[in-house]
Amino acid sequence: MKEDKSHSEKTLVEQHAMKRLSQVEKHQQKAYEKRSRSFPWKEIIMGIFFLIILIIFVAQNLIH
Questions:
Q1: Best CA proximity match to 12, nearest among 24, 4, 23, 22
Q2: DSSP code at position 39
Q3: What is the mean pLDDT of residues 4-12?
Q4: What does the DSSP 8-state code read for residue 40?
C-alpha cells in the first residue's frame, strides 16, 4: 500500500513537472515568434526626434 501511495505521488510530481516544462517551453518560444505590429510607432517617434534635433542643429549654425 505504501508503494502505491509513493508511486501515485511520484506520478503527480512527474505530471506537474511535465506541465511546468511545457509552460516554460511555450514561454521561451514566444521570444522567437515574429510579432506583427499594425503601425511602426517607435520608428515614427524616433524620426520626429531626429528631425527636431537636426533642425535645432542647422538653426544654430545659421544664426552664428
A1: 4
A2: S
A3: 69
A4: -
